[in-house]
Automatic annotation (TrEMBL):
Species the sequence originates in: Martelella radicis
This protein's UniProt keywords: Metal-binding, Multifunctional enzyme, NADP, Oxidoreductase
GO BP terms: malate metabolic process
Domain Malic enzyme NAD-binding per the UniProt entry, residue ranges: 172-408
Subunit structure: Homooctamer.
Family: In the N-terminal section; belongs to the malic enzymes family. In the C-terminal section; belongs to the phosphate acetyltransferase and butyryltransferase family.
EC top class, as a word: oxidoreductase
Enzyme Commission number(s) from the entry: 1.1.1.40
Protein name: Malate dehydrogenase (Oxaloacetate-decarboxylating)(NADP+)
Length: 772
């Protein structure tokens, strides 16, 4: 394997890791996947000859049917001729392939857009135009990438005229949109107006000129813009290396070096090459300057050098390892998402402006899913957080609908979005994979009377961010256990808006008027378990799970969430002592939900009983099936084992068989079978082969295990292998709603569990009402 040439400034380690990443376990970054079954002759007859003739004729009769019967309306071509690959220059189409594969992956991961990356050996405008325009039948859109200026301008202009699908040169417009959003926000922070700022641009290529054009349409004055390329200042009458697009920004001056014009500049816009800005020049710039060093992979100036010169600077790069990543990845997946979803014929100025406003606006919203910058600082709108993080899942929710709306309003949408709420909901489910599965739970929680969820770890950042979402979504009124001064300081630090008393309540573990009653109540549960009154006082002031459980028991709260810190079994002991078990159960158990591209699967018992008896297994299955129904689905339970329908007579296989008999007696309506192998539980075909009369049909969605080891290990391995999202652990059998979170839980995970707890609290309330 030949070694790559050193990329200036990029660490040797990172380069080696990048080569490894691209090479293993398989070469490259993507593959094509079939989305329809192809398992038998019938499928083959439908997918291919003779069946495939039917959609062909339908499309021939009505070309717009291609959107119904093929992948075209979600398929974008990322096309490059390799003439301006990042800041690496004209390295040719073959060497550009890793970048284009990379763009394809970003399109798919961030916006669900399918991409063919197409690297073409087409150096001239004519060759590019004829090759690309001939591809129109295949694609719903064309993303031109890393094609050098000035050829890119003509290529894009001609293709836009010839083609009836969006043609978008990402290095021009994707970059311009994100640069404009960052500059608007940066100038707002600096208290400057775009009409008055001086902009010095290094680079007069595709990206730089498109950025300047967009900034001008936002109000920047041409006379305040100074442009430099490889030959220095772009000035009127310059004879070498000029073109009509650069000439727009030509400025009269006898001094032609960037150093001659940087004085008083408010914005340095670097879209050229590594190291083009000398640190010493920064001293001459205006107050609170914006340093946009956007060349990739190595910027015009490294942020640490820029910061050393100018404390007050707002520094942006195109890289993910520094704050303020100004990179077109924040734009292209989502602008295409919006354009494809409404069948836009083009991407026009209105759609671009809508994207600028959506990105700029999102940076000012509170962050809760991606809490920290690359330097570990919380993300709050300010000099180090001018634009959203590329991992902010709300990018698709803000940009795509805004773009689709602008397309419809400007008359270029073939299929305008009719139901905006349903569209948002659809995107929301994409952004948060848990969305579809959690939807019935959220709907039930919102429909219920507001419930008070108490959080034992109220001072934890993830809990605070989740509490903010629960308030905003109208799901719960949170009660945070924590010291008021600590909560206040942290709310400010994380940029959260919720206010005590108005939006949420506090129980201060250091002083609360109710504590005497809490101690007495606690003693009533534990006085005969070796806890003295003195010890009880100490526990009630220091153990926040005990405080939370007491609050739920006394009716001061409706549900408890604890466990962000500490051992599961200790939290469970406290819940058991205070809240106790539901009268219908002998013991607690625990259910885990994994949500992956394959759907939702539940696992039990993942956290409580090491080696359950048949009675306990049956009880866990019944409790689990009831919990599954809260997600709007009917449980299909499989009792899994190393034994397949009596193939072994070991102790654990026998326990599962006995458990099945108990379940059938106690819950005859439940679709359940066992004991069976794990693959038999998942595959209907396999199951029919060994047990044609199985009482379980289709794929099991609830797997009940013979031991805690088996359940926990299987769930965590499957979670890692499928990159699945975990919801849980869901505590079963508690007399009142209470859950013990895991230390690795995210804010989103806490929101999910709190929402489930609200639904459980509502059901418990109804149960009590019915009992009266
Ligand atoms: N952060 C982001 O999202 C993006 C970053 N970029 C980066 O911007 C840079 C340019 O990309 P793009 O516009 O597509 O490429 P182009 O080839 O179209 O433009 C490159 C420009 O840089 C100029 N240039 C080259 N060397 C120097 C130098 N030493 N001093 C000043 N100017 C110089 C060239 O000058 P001349 O005209 O004389 O040849 C040309 O104007 C790349 O580094 C790329 O990675 C691009 C898109 C997005
Ligand atoms: C980000 C990008 O498109 C570039 O650097 O060319
Ligand atoms: Mg590019």
């Amino acid at each position: 394997m030949s070694e790559p040439k050193e990329t200036k400034g990029a660490g040797e380690d990172l380069q080696q890791q990048a080569l490894f990443y691209h090479r293993y376990p398989r070469a490259g970054k993507l593959e094509i996947q079939a989305i329809k079954p192809l398992g038998n002759q019938r499928d083959l007859a439908l997918a291919y000859s003779p069946g495939v003739g039917a959609p062909c004729i339908a499309i021939h009769d009505n070309p717009s049917d291609a959107a119904k019967y093929t992948s075209r309306s979600n398929l974008v071509a990322v096309i490059s001729n390799g003439t301006a690959v990042l800041g690496l220059g004209n390295i040719g189409p073959l060497a550009s392939k890793p970048v284009m594969e990379g763009k394809a992956v970003l399109f798919k991961k961030f916006a669900g857009v399918d991409v063919f990356d197409i690297e073409i050996d087409a150096p001239t405008i004519d060759e590019m135009v004829s090759t690309i325009s001939a591809l129109e039948p295949t694609f719903g859109g064309v993303n031109l990438e890393d094609i050098k200026a000035p050829e890119c301008f003509e290529v894009e202009r001609i293709l836009r005229e010839k083609m009836q699908i969006p043609v978008f040169h990402d290095d021009q417009h994707g970059t311009a949109i994100i640069v404009a959003a960052a500059i608007l926000n940066g100038l707002e922070l600096a208290g400057k107006s775009i009409e008055n700022v001086k902009i010095v641009a290094s680079g007069a290529g595709a990206a730089a000129l498109a950025c300047l054009n967009l900034l001008v349409s936002l109000g920047a004055k041409r006379e305040n813009i100074w442009v430099f390329d490889i030959d220095g200042l772009v000035y009127p009458g310059r004879e070498t290396n000029m073109d009509q697009w650069k000439a727009v920004y030509a400025q009269e001056s006898d001094a032609h070096a960037l150093a001659d014009h940087i004085e008083g500049a408010d914005v340095f816009l670097g879209l050229s090459v590594a190291g083009a800005l000398k640190p010493a020049l920064l001293k001459q710039m205006a107050e609170k300057p914006m340093i946009m060093a956007l060349a990739n992979p190595v910027p015009e100036i490294m942020p640490d050098l820029a910061r050393a010169e100018r404390e007050d600077a707002m520094i942006c790069t195109g890289r993910s390892d520094f704050p303020n990543q100004v990179n077109n990845v924040l734009c292209f997946p989502y602008i295409f998402r919006g354009a494809l979803d409404c069948g836009a014929r083009t991407i026009n100025e209105e759609m671009k402006m809508a994207a600028v406003r959506a990105i700029a606006g999102l940076a000012k919203e509170e962050v809760w899913e991606v809490p920290h910058s690359s330097t570990g600082e919380p993300l709050i709108f300010g000099p180090d957080y001018l634009i959203p993080s590329p991992f902010d899942p709300r990018l698709i929710l803000r940009i795509a609908p805004a773009v689709a709306k602008a397309a419809a309003e400007s008359g270029v949408a073939e299929r305008p979005i009719e139901d905006h709420e349903a569209y948002y909901d659809h995107l929301n489910r994409f952004a948060f994979r848990s969305g579809l599965v959690m939807k019935p739970v959220f709907a039930a929680a919102k429909a219920a009377e507001p419930k008070r969820v108490i959080f034992s770890d109220g001072e934890d950042e993830r809990v605070m961010r989740a509490a903010q979402v629960l308030i905003e979504e109208g799901i719960s009124r949170p009660i945070l256990i924590g010291r008021p001064n600590v909560l206040e300081t942290r709310m400010k630090r994380y940029g959260l808006r919720m206010r005590p008393q108005e939006d949420y309540d506090i129980i201060n573990p250091e002083s609360d008027s109710r504590f005497r009653e809490y101690v007495d109540e606690y003693l009533s549960f534990v006085a005969r378990k070796g806890v003295t009154p003195d010890r009880a006082r100490t526990i009630v002031r220091t153990n926040t799970t005990v405080i939370g459980a007491l609050a739920v028991k006394r009716g001061d709260a409706d549900a408890l969430l604890c466990g962000v810190e500490g051992r599961f079994d200790r939290h469970l002991r406290d819940i058991g002592n205070i809240i106790g078990k539901h009268e219908d159960v002998r013991d607690f158990s625990s259910l885990g939900l994994l949500i992956s591209n394959r759907g939702a699967t539940f696992f039990a018992d993942t956290h409580v009983t090491y080696c359950p008896t048949p009675e306990e297994i049956a009880e866990t299955t019944i409790q689990s099936a009831r919990a599954v129904s809260r997600f709007g689905m009917a449980a299909k339970a499989a009792l899994v084992s190393h034994s397949n329908f009596g193939s072994r007579d070991s102790e654990s296989a026998t326990r599962m068989r006995e458990a099945l008999a108990i379940i059938r007696e106690r819950m005859p309506d439940l679709e359940v079978d066992g004991e069976m192998h794990g693959d038999t539980a998942i595959s209907d075909i396999l199951r029919k082969r060994v047990m044609p009369n199985s009482t379980l049909s289709g794929e099991a969605n609830l797997l009940i295990f013979p031991s805690l080891d088996a359940a926990h290990i299987t769930m965590t391995v499957v979670q890692s292998m499928l990159d699945a999202l975990h919801v849980g652990p869901i505590l079963l059998g508690s007399a009142l709603p209470a859950h013990i979170l895991s230390p690795s839980v995210t804010s989103r995970g806490i929101v999910n569990m709190a929402t489930l707890a609200v639904v459980e609290a509502d059901l418990a309330q109804e149960e009590r009402r019915n009992a009266v």
